[in-house]
What we know:
It is a single chain. The chain is an alpha+beta fold. The protein has 2 domains: about 1-40; about 50-135, Lipocalin, CATH 2.40.128.270. The protein is built from 2 helices and 9 strands. The chain has helices spanning about 1-10, 15-40; strands at about 50-55, 55-60, 60-70, 75-80, 85-95, 100-105, 110-120, 120-125, 130-135. Helix 1 packs antiparallel against helix 2 (about 15-40).
Amino acid sequence: MVGNVLNRLEEIPSAPAAQMKSRLVRVWLLVQFLALASCVRSSSAVELTGVWVSEPIETQLGMATEMVCFSQGSQFTRITRSQAGTMSHKGTYELVGDALTIRFADTAAPASFRAKSQSGTLILGWTDGKSREYRKSNTPCEL
């Protein structure tokens, strides 16, 4: 389409037509650049949204699994299933770079983590150097 317009402008040998052609080329290049830029995503971006499930882990209550759910509206739910039963904690989260802060509704102090996601795996690291891996899951975030 732009090519047709440019070809027709070439048929008009005037200074305004040359300026118009130059403007159209610049606008077309800008549109192409913006379209390409909107498709590019930072490879270092942490993608949290969704449901993540841990492998079985040893806890004080025996073996347990954790399901962590991050919604697009910054809502967070953690469901822990153990031999002693199921526990749930809700709150909000904020992600800045790889720094994840979770504010639980039933706890005054926020929890801080380093978050990394790649190839369907989420790794949450605590400040003491320990970390836990979670796998992306298609299961709903339910008790």
